[in-house]
């Protein structure tokens, strides 16, 4: 015996279900009772035993990739994460953004060492074996390039979330707490800062205040359940939660305890913020609260008026996101979005808000607040204080525009 499910009955159920969702956001539609025809239980594309891949790959139907900025200098470059295609808070390691100043070294972990010296009681060299014997910690944290969203600051906003906000990713990082290593070597009272150095071709190095080093910094060897990717610092990197990407030294080989910052190339000539008065802010480490709507967003298309879910990401280098508000009327009124999934400190937080589009021209904006009470500013507010000389640490409110034909754009 077999029961037909008529298309009409199915559509009637679907319509009723959508109405229920829109009127009570957050509640699940009641499942409708159907009889399943036996042929529905037979897999149409059954391939026994295939595929068997020793290291898995995604479905060939999934096409989302990083965007690589064309670069004329070999060994330097940047890639952007396709934020609009992600689900949840974790960025797949294969889609993590990159920023390289001197290429990607291929390092054999059996030869890699970390030297900790300077103002310490016992200078020590740690092999990877030594580090793996120490107690591990795992934390989910975002990493963001200081220059992320610079194009929005300059008034040339990126066409989609990847191009506007894609120098941002979020991973579960595993390693040993830097505090543990510093306790092993015994930091002398005169030490106030440390200089962390990578073993890449440029020996990229940055000064970090000791206070942060003893707080939540991780010397990481793991990312999302496996070893770091080479582009993310294999076999060892610093993860400095909430602070600009550049200080999260990759291919970490040396930590020098010192009494003052060393004014390295990447904290003197670069990664400083030139203010309107001609003076530059230095050691601007924290990435302030920021958010972006990833659906509907630039580059996407709405299939006519009706019910849509507004979704996006928010994060703050100062702790947890406590609130995200959404405006669909050019910032005149704001509604609280729901924070879904995990809400972790210094990590990407997901938000959502059910929305009914009436088919008119509208802008979609999000603004977030973190646990310190700080709220993401407008572009005008930021530019009035900081001017347009510097391009780092821009975190203004982002707007997408929905046009009558359903097209969503950045202008
Ligand atoms: Co900075």
What does this structure look like?
This protein is an alpha+beta fold and 411 residues long. Among the domains are: 103-146 and 172-281, Oxidoreductase, molybdopterin-binding domain (Sulfite Oxidase, Chain A, domain 2, Alpha-Beta Complex), CATH 3.90.420.10; 290-409, Immunoglobulin-like. It has helices at residues 7-23, 128-132, 150-153, 161-165, 178-185, 210-213, 265-268, 379-386, and strands at 67-68, 77-80, 98-100, 113-118, 124-127, 136-144, 168-177, 193-198, 205-209, 218-223, 226-227, 237-239, 252-258, 273-274, 280-281, 290-295, 306-315, 321-327, 335-336, 338-340, 349-357, 362-370, 398-402, 408-409. The strands form six sheets. The protein has a five-stranded mixed sheet. Strands 6, 7, 10, 11 and 12 form a five-stranded antiparallel sheet that branches. The protein has a five-stranded antiparallel sheet with strand order 19-18-22-23-24, with no helix packed on it. A hairpin with a 5-residue loop joins strand 4 (113-118) and strand 5. Mean pLDDT is 91; it is low at 1-27. The structure holds cobalt (II) ion.
């Amino acid at each position: 015996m077999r029961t037909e499910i008529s298309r009409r009955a199915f559509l009637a159920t679907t319509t009723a279900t959508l109405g229920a969702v829109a009127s009570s956001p957050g509640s699940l539609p009641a499942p409708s009772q159907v009889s399943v025809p036996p042929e529905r239980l037979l897999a149409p594309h059954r391939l026994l035993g295939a595929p068997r891949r020793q290291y898995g790959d995604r479905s060939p139907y999934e096409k989302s990739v990083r965007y690589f900025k064309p670069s004329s200098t070999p060994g330097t470059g940047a890639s952007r994460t396709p934020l609009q295609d992600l689900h949840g808070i974790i960025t797949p390691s294969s889609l993590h953004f990159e920023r390289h100043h001197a290429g990607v070294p291929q390092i054999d972990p059996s030869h890699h060492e970390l030297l900790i010296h300077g103002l310490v009681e016992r200078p020590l060299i740690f092999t990877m074996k030594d580090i793996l014997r120490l107690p591990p910690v795992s934390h989910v944290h975002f990493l963001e390039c200081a220059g992320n969203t610079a194009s929005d600051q300059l008034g040339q906003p990126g066409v989609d979330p990847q191009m506007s906000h894609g120098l941002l990713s979020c991973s579960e990082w595993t390693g040993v707490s830097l505090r543990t290593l510093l306790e092993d070597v015994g930091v002398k009272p005169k030490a106030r800062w440390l200089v962390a150095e990578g073993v890449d071709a440029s020996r990229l190095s940055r000064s970090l205040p000791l206070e942060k080093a003893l707080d939540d910094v991780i010397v990481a060897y793991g990312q999302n359940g496996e070893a770091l990717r080479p582009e993310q610092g294999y076999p060892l990197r610093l993860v400095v939660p909430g602070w600009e990407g550049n200080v999260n030294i990759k291919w970490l080989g040396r930590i020098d305890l010192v009494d003052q910052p060393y004014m390295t190339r990447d904290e003197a000539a670069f990664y400083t913020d030139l203010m309107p008065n001609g003076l530059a802010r230095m050691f601007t480490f924290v990435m302030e609260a920021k958010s972006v709507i990833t659906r509907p967003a630039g580059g996407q298309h709405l299939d006519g008026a009706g019910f849509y879910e507004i979704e996006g990401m928010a994060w703050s280098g100062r702790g947890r996101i406590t609130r995200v508000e959404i405006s669909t009327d050019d910032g005149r009124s704001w509604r609280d979005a729901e924070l879904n999934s995990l809400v972790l400190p210094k990590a990407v937080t997901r938000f959502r808000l059910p929305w009914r589009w009436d088919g008119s021209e509208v802008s979609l904006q999000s603004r977030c607040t973190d646990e310190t009470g700080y709220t993401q500013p407008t572009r005008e507010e930021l530019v009035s204080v900081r001017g347009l000389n510097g391009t780092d640490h821009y975190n203004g409110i982002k707007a997408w525009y929905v046009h009558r034909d359903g097209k969503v754009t950045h202008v």
